[in-house]
Amino acid sequence: MGLRAATSRIYRGEISADIVGRPKIWYTISGLLLALSIAGLLVQGLNFGVEFKGGSVFTFKAPSASIEQVRTAVGDGGAHQVIVQKAGEDWRVTTESMSSSHVTEVKTSITEELKVPAAKVSTQVVGASWGGEIQKKAWQALIVFMILIIAYLSVAFEWRMAVAAVVALVHDLVITAGIYAWSGFEVTPATLLGFLTILGYSLYDAVVVFDMIKEVTKPLGPTSKTTYSEAANQALSSTLVRSLNTSLVAILPVGAILFIGTTLFGAGTLKDLSLALFVGMIVGTYSSICVATPLLVQFKEREPKYRQIRENIARRERNASKQVKTAKVTAGAGAAGKPDAGDADDAGDHADASGDRDDVRSTVTVRKVVQTGSRQQPKRGTRQQRRGGK
């Protein structure tokens, strides 16, 4: 079966993939992704926008200007940390935080060198304290979100599922942040919205899978013929197609915004949000299937109930194997004690040959006796005659 045919059958739900039974593969992949992401965060770092670190923002239209011309015009006004971005015909230039008089000088330089009317140049000054407050609020929102997730999953399911889901969420956040660091995209409030969105999306996938696992594993008992791992894998296989379809439908429009909108239509304000959503949806789908579920199974297999089920199944398999071996040995012994049909034929042939030889011997003996008797009879008669004659 080719890869394409196997993939199509899995997608249609005709065959099940052994995902739960291969946790080392998924943990290795996740470990590599996490290591790469952490390296990006340590080496590159996140490029925080002006909303977080503070600064001055100049926005204007100059269709005929180049990036170097815009950077030179802003630098001639006295700015030092100049970051130039273009979205369509709009230029967005970010600098360090400056005073009002300094902002006016930069604005004047843009007007004179790029021939842009002063009324068309919009300015915005963000203080560092305001950016720090935004970061603080973002961390608070993330912590509250995690607490609510743990509480909900602990009540709706159990604490093991809550722990597995939280591990998957942290996994998604770190990988998405690492890719953000390597890409050099600016972290803006829209990025935070994207991060919170992917957390909810990843949680949705995990809840769907966990709910199916809970339903499938509920009837398991001491006499069950299926372990928790096998039942969980069946539940995961039944929801695999649903998860892939949902992810594909959600990723397509986000990918269109990221790759088509930002390149062809200049939707620069949406690229931060779309990158976080695009990466987070892919990683979230992977983590809910290949990270959260195998981790949950490992937690559950340590419970006495499911450990006893596994031991009972193993014992029954050993007994069945012993019975098969005993049956084979008995069948072999019976075959050895019973004469073979060929052997019986050979024995019959030998018996017939012996009988033939005995018959031949008897016939020869009778003939000899008869011959001897016939010879002696005349001799005896002749002697009597002789005696009588005498």
TrEMBL record:
GO MF assignments: protein-transporting ATPase activity
Membrane topology: Multi-pass membrane protein
Basic residues: compositionally biased ranges: 377-390
InterPro entries found in the cross-reference section: SecD/SecF_arch_bac, SecD/SecF_bac, SecD/SecF_CS, SecD_SecF_C, SecD_SecF_C_bact, SecF_bac
Residue stretches of biased makeup (Basic and acidic residues): 347-361
Cellular component, GO annotation: plasma membrane
Keywords: Cell membrane, Membrane, Protein transport, Translocation, Transmembrane, Transmembrane helix, Transport
GO annotation terms (biological process): intracellular protein transmembrane transport; protein targeting; protein transport by the Sec complex
Residue spans of biased composition, Low complexity class: 324-339
Domain of life: Bacteria
Region of interest: Disordered: 317-390
Ranges of residues in domain Protein export membrane protein SecD/SecF C-terminal: 109-301
Subcellular locations according to the entry: Cell membrane
UniProt record similarity statement: Belongs to the SecD/SecF family. SecF subfamily.
Description of how the protein assembles with itself and partners: Forms a complex with SecD. Part of the essential Sec protein translocation apparatus which comprises SecA, SecYEG and auxiliary proteins SecDF. Other proteins may also be involved.
Primary role: Part of the Sec protein translocase complex. Interacts with the SecYEG preprotein conducting channel. SecDF uses the proton motive force (PMF) to complete protein translocation after the ATP-dependent function of SecA.
Protein name (database record): Protein-export membrane protein SecF
Upper classification of the organism: Bacteria, Bacillati, Actinomycetota, Actinomycetes, Streptosporangiales
